[in-house]
């Protein structure tokens, strides 16, 4: 039905179930669909030409807005906490406080650097951030079909918006839930707004955004895209859900993570740097 699903990088635990969900979504069409996607390493590439691509945080971390001394501290944080984030053997209750610690420490360092909001567009333009191949079809098709796209990110909202704005795909159907910067009257970063969103508390973030999900209550079909096991709770605020199709990008630690990803996600895409599979599914059902 969708040839892309037969590619060797596509792993599906229960093909019959996936087919049934897709058929059911196709039957009711675009007016009943909403798409919820993570940002970093899901809509953006994990690697390009063998080199890791930056997350929203890394776009700032590696930029000219950060002093050399601070860059070292931010890199130390990444080297300490990223292995914890992606370790599937460590219990969640141990990981949660450590994730909060990482985000808080990193945000404190960024605040110390007195980042000016007018410089964000420049550092995004100069960065190595790249949306996955096929991004234009993905964003444009959802906009054309009137399907709402929620981008739910533990990254930095201001940076994320700039990435999609510069790519020309920040269409009116896109809503972003993320960590937003708070600037003082001179335009200098002084804090982050609202409740912190980290990679494993997206459920709480979803439940705080009741208004958004209330508006979309006539759309009980959800296509969810993520790259972390934490992304699976992004749809926890959806009202009266009928079908959910969970598509997971398995970018890193493929051998250790394959089993847990196959259990949690309906479709697992192994080291696939494109949006070809989600696009093929979305074109089929809408
Ligand atoms: O958009 P998404 O929810 O994926 O953003 C979170 C990602 O940002 C995490 O996977 C984490 O590895 C990364 N991160 C980072 N630097 C930080 C905090 C998080 O690169 N200081
Ligand atoms: Mg991610």
What does this structure look like?
- The protein is of the alpha/beta class.
- The mean pLDDT is 97.
- The two termini are 14 Å apart.
- Helix 5 (120-126) crosses helix 7 (157-166) and helix 6 packs parallel to helix 11.
- The strands form three sheets. The protein has a seven-stranded mixed β-sheet, with helices on both faces. A two-stranded antiparallel sheet has the order 3-4. A two-stranded antiparallel ribbon has the order 7-8.
- The chain is built from eleven helices and eleven strands.
- The structure holds cytidine-5'-monophosphate and magnesium ion.
- Residues 38-41, 55, 57-58, 78, 82, 85, 102-103, 106, 153-155, 199, 228 line the site of cytidine-5'-monophosphate.
In round numbers, the mean pLDDT is 97
Give the H and E element order.
EHEEEHHHHHEHEEEHHEEHEH
What is the overall number of helices? 11
Strand content: 15-25%
Say which molecules are bound, naming each kind only once.
cytidine-5'-monophosphate, magnesium ion
- Provide the structure class: alpha/beta
Share of helix, binned: 40-55%
Give the CA-CA distance, first to last residue: 14 Å
Query: What is the β-strand count?
Result: 11
Task: Profile the largest sheet.
Answer: 7 strands, mixed
Detail the topology: elements first, then pairings.
Blueprint: E1 10-12, H1 15-28, E2 33-37, E3 47-48, E4 51-52, H2 56-61, H3 68-85, H4 92-112, H5 120-126, H6 135-144, E5 149-156, H7 157-166, E6 174-179, E7 181-183, E8 189-192, H8 202-208, H9 210-215, E9 221-226, E10 243-250, H10 254-264, E11 267-270, H11 276-285
Parallel strand pairs: 2-5, 2-9, 5-6, 9-10, 10-11
Antiparallel strand pairs: 1-11, 3-4, 7-8
The structure holds cytidine-5'-monophosphate (C5P) and magnesium ion (MG).
